[in-house]
Amino acid sequence: MQPLPQRSYDSYDNFQNVASTSKAKDVNKSPNKVETIPKNKNLDTVNKPKSDVNQKPKVIIVGTSNTSRLNTNFLSKNFTTTKYTAFHLEDTAKTIEELKLSPAPNVIVLHSLTNSLKDNSADNCVTKLDNIVQTTNKKWPSCKVVISLATVRKDKDTYNNQVHLVNALVRNHFIKYNFVSLCDNDNY
């Protein structure tokens, strides 16, 4: 397995900046961009192919019931968003493996860590998450990955300790990947 690129990690990337940065890179790489000027006398009109006009960055969200309630129409008009429900990391891995997307998504958001922490150790969760990230990177090398960190719960203090532990391990582990950003959901 090839080593993944290293990242100089100075701050968390803004979600919309990641999407818009990816869009700018993809537009510049398009070798068959064609503009046609109509034969009429109004030379101010330039028609672009529909594929270029409607091309917005594609964001995929794979996550728990928390993400299923998101209304993607209100996230942003600057990118298109598709959601997939995956309650645990195993479901997330299966979803990523089964997705057949063309063109590749610009950003994939993963929010499945919280539920998996109930049945797995923090170390095991990080290992499973790393496998998902590497599968994603292998499948779509230009795609950015946003990992939504585990969220605390009011019902159990011991569980919250596990949440803080796994979040620290995820921060430490994924600092080395330049295509991974973290979304911190801590309300403290």
TrEMBL record:
Residues 8-22 have a biased composition (Polar residues). Residues 36-51 have a biased composition (Basic and acidic residues). Residues 1-51 are annotated as: Disordered. It comes from the Eukaryota. This is Uncharacterized protein. It comes from Mytilus galloprovincialis (Mediterranean mussel).
